[in-house]
Amino acid sequence: MTDSEPDPAADPKARLAEATAWVFDLDNTLYAASFDLFAQIDVRMKSYIADFLGLDPESAYQVQKQYFHDYGTSLRGLMHHHRMDPAPFLEFVHDIDVTVLPPSPDLDAALDRLPGRKLIFTNASAAHAERVVERLGIARHFEAVYDIVAADHRPKPEPAVYEDLVIRHGIDASRSVMVEDMARNLAPAAALGMTTVWVRTGSEWGQIGAEDGHVHHVTDDLTAWLGEVIGVTNQPGN
User: Fold this and answer.
1) pTM reported for the whole predicted model
2) Within 13 Å and on the Cβ side, how many CA atoms surround 59?
């Protein structure tokens, strides 16, 4: 960061009013973690790994979680150790019932009033993201989905992925906000100059890194928080 660039940590609330782009994580961020959509993905992932590696379900689950911890996604570990084709895996594990999510007219209204470009940045697939935002009724707000395929199957929080996102979509990081439920995934965003927002879900994994100084805002309710932000951005002179 140069001397001429603003420091988002210095006055993070003021930085929100100057944001020209908003980058949102998908799962457990744009909808509440209490809907537990990932539980469906988790079951299908275990099933796929068991079939692919010829393992019993318990052994497959152990492999799944070990690769997740070691590589950021189970997919990355499977590709590295077993040369697995990612496309069938992503299609299978994301073939879930998204109707457990209710439409979110309040979030739709908040996003409609929030100025700036809006993108989704997810370790899931674009097809999954599109189904989720369609179900929530908020698809119209997002100009692009930067998914695990666009990232060449490199998961957050690998810094190179964030750099590629910024370059590919012409984002001014110093005028951008990233919203994410995994606190550690906000570190590379903050390093690029983004203002960061951690959506706290209560999960132990999600709070790793929350005290490391790269989280500028914390909320338990994204929709309510965006309502407060809109009040800031709509003040005279903004």
Assistant:
1) 0.91
2) 7
